[in-house]
Structures are given as C-alpha cells and as structure tokens.
Amino acid sequence: MAEKELVESWWLKFRSPQEIYENHANFLVAEIAFYPMALLTLVHALRSGTRYRNLWIAAVLQGLVAEMISYWVPEVDNFWHAQSSIMMLGRRLPLYIMCIYPTVHYVSCIAASRLKLGIIPTAYAAGLADCVFYHVYDIVGLKNLWWTWHDTDPNIYERQFWVPFASTMFRLTFSAAFSLLFFGSHKIMTGKSMYEPGSFLQETVAVILTGLLTFVTAVATHFIPLYHSLHDVFGVSSEVCILSVIYLYILIVWVADRNGPPQARPKTKGTHTWKDEVALIVLLLFLTFAGLAVFAKPETVVSTGLHEPLGPCNEPQHFYNAIGQPLSKRRYLCPTDFDEGYMDFHCVPGGKPPPGIHHWYTVCGTPHENHAEHITVVWGFCLLGLTYYYNLLACSGLDASQSKKQKIN
User: What's the pLDDT tens digit per position in 41-52?
Assistant: First the structure.
C-alpha cells in the first residue's frame, strides 16, 4: 500500500463487509457481534443512573488511551489488528475494539459489584471476570488472525495456544486497576458508596483520572511487582507468574466473600431481577465464541493489512522493559525464520512473502493442529465463564439502582 493512501485514510477508513466475508468470514461475525453487545451495555448504563453512565464512559476512554499507547510507544508496540469494516488511527484501531472495552470492563465491574464486598475485593473479582471473558476471545481471535503478535518480543515470547501469558496478565491487572481507580477516586473525593453519585465536577474528575491513568497505574502497582520483578529479575516463568496472580486474586475475593454483608445474597427466590442486558451480553459472548471454536475455519483466512513489518532478518531493535532492563527484538519479521504457528504465507502467490520491507501485506490462517483440543479449551473456559458470571449476577446482590427500588427481605 502506498504511504500516501495510508496517510489520507489515517482518521477513518471503511472496508466492504462483503470483502471481509469472502476473505475473513469469522472476523466479520465477531465484529458484528460486539456492536449490539456494546449497545446493550449503554442501554443498561443509561437506565441505571449516573455512576453507571460514567463507568461506561470511563471504559471507552480507558480503551482509547490503552490502544493509542500500545500503537505508538515502541516498547509495547507488539500487535496489529486485522482490518475491520471501520478502521481508525492509521488503520491500527478497528471500531469494534472500542466496543470491546465497554463490553468487558463494564460487564465485569457490574457483575463484581453485586458481591457487595467493597472497592478492593470488587476490583479483583472484576479482574477475574474480565480475564475469563477476554481469554476466550484471545484464544479464538488469535487462531483466526483477528490480530497478529510480534514474533521476537521477549515480553510476549512465552505463550500457550500462541496467546502470550503477558496478554492474560494485562487483562487481570488492567481491569483491577480500572476498577480501583474509578471507585477509589470517587470514594476519596466524595466519601460516598461506590454507586452513589457525587457532584458533576467530582464525577468528571473520576472519569478522566480512570481513563488516563489506568495504564500507568496498572503497570506501576501490578505489572511491575507481580510480573516484571518475578519474571525479569528472578527468572520466574510467565506461566507461574500468571497462576500466582490468579491465585492471589481468588484468595482476596474468597476471604472477603466469606464475610460478605447480608445484601450480597438474594433472600427469596424470584426476587432477584438478574435477567437483564448484562446477563444477555454474557450469554451472547460465550455462545458466540463456543460456536466459532467449532465452525470457524482458520485455514481459509486471508488477512491483508498491517502486520509486524516484514524485512531483513538481522536488524535488531533495542529497548527497555518497565523496570529499566535492556532488551532487544528483531526490527522486522524474518520471512525465513519466524515462529508464529497460527499464520503462514501459503495463500499468497508462490507461497512466499514479498521481498523487501513491507508494513502492509497478506498472511494466511493455518489449520488446527488438534481441533478437538481447541474446542475443549474454548468450551471449558466458556463453561467456567458462564458459571462464574451466573454466580456473580444471579446469586449475589442487586445493582445499586435496583436495590433502592426493591426491598430485599
């Protein structure tokens, strides 16, 4: 693609859904699915009150900030989205990605809040809810080339099913930090409960602080002590780091839940109005990905767009990690020496990538090495997610807006 064309369409670029369907059909399914999910979260927020609306806005703002940092800070510029029907910011940001942030952040926070455990346990319950939501998306999406990862970045080198462990850590820690900032800043400024609104100025400050500072807060308070210190200083594997964080989060939530308040449990069957937009989103998401695990055919995917720059194999790029250690990776994807098993070049003419340096090129999906294993893993996480969310949504307390309208005996 000519650089001039890329610049001219920097802010906004449309792509024919028909073209996506012909070359990347399962990606179109996911894109279409997330638009109504995001709309449902907005409907729930608008009817639930000021704090819910502000939570939704903060989720969108935080998503935009996180994506921009990920694209333009070289140390974390290590993934490239496939080209959806609406692309923004130099064709790096699909519009549907901006629907994922309110969907995942909003739903996980609302579900965790129903435990009525206070700001800190709620944040870690939300982190777990976010993680199980997003991990299914991570596994299915990567296999179907909804994005590609940098091949030699040491921060994402350790993986399972080609999903970097660091991606899972990202969701765990950023979701927890998002919740802590949104509810914590509100508590400090107003002294009120989590969903009791403050003044317009106080609410605006809480939204802006959450949107702008979640990334740096998550890195400083969670990623560095819980991942980089263990992994990069002491050589602990990424897998052990992730499992340790998950166990820690579970312990925090479980201990708090053992001493939860009376309003954290419905007293009488039939009094809990949990069948709402949030429950519908959870059901839609897990059913969508369970279906894609079975019916999507990754070997038919042809993904043309921005990927890791293709070029010479021997040119290094030096950078520092979050704790100041020097690291290096290849500046370009080496066409003759790369290890990304979810993609190859079998669908391009001659079965080889074009010579020279390219940012815009075509990669091809690969068949499942073991389709039954893929289905088992995805369905297992879907079942785990449905069970966890059912207990958060249906077996816990009401939303703050509902609890004021409905007395619980």
Answer: 999 999 999 999
Q: State the Cα angle at 328 between 323 and 333, rounded to 5°.
A: 135
Instruction: In whole angstroms, give the CA distance from residue 299 to residue 347.
Output: 9
Output the average pLDDT for the chain: 92
Which residues does residue 320 pair with via DSSP β-bridges, in sequence order?
326
Amino acid (1-letter code) at residue 64: L
Radius of gyration of the chain (CA): 22
Scan for tokens 């903060």, then name that residue.
Answer: 58
How far is it, in rounded angstroms, from Cα 80 to Cα 66?
14
> What does the CA dihedral 176, 177, 178, 183 come to, rounded to 10 degrees?
90
SS3 content of the chain, % helix, strand, coil (to 5): 60, 10, 25
> If you search the block for the tokens 């369907």, which residue do you land on?
21
Q: Is the pLDDT of residue 36 over 60?
A: yes
Q: Count of CB atoms within 10 A of residue 296's CB?
A: 22
Q: Are 367 and 149 in contact (CB under 8 A)?
A: no
Separation between Cα atoms, residue 190 and residue 183, nearest integer Å: 10
Task: Give the HSE-up count for residue 167: Cα atoms under 13 Å, Cβ half-sphere.
Answer: 27
Rounded to whole angstroms, the Cα distance separating 38 from 103 reads 5
Question: pTM for the whole thing?
Answer: 0.92
Cβ neighbour number for residue 80 with a 10 Å cutoff: 21
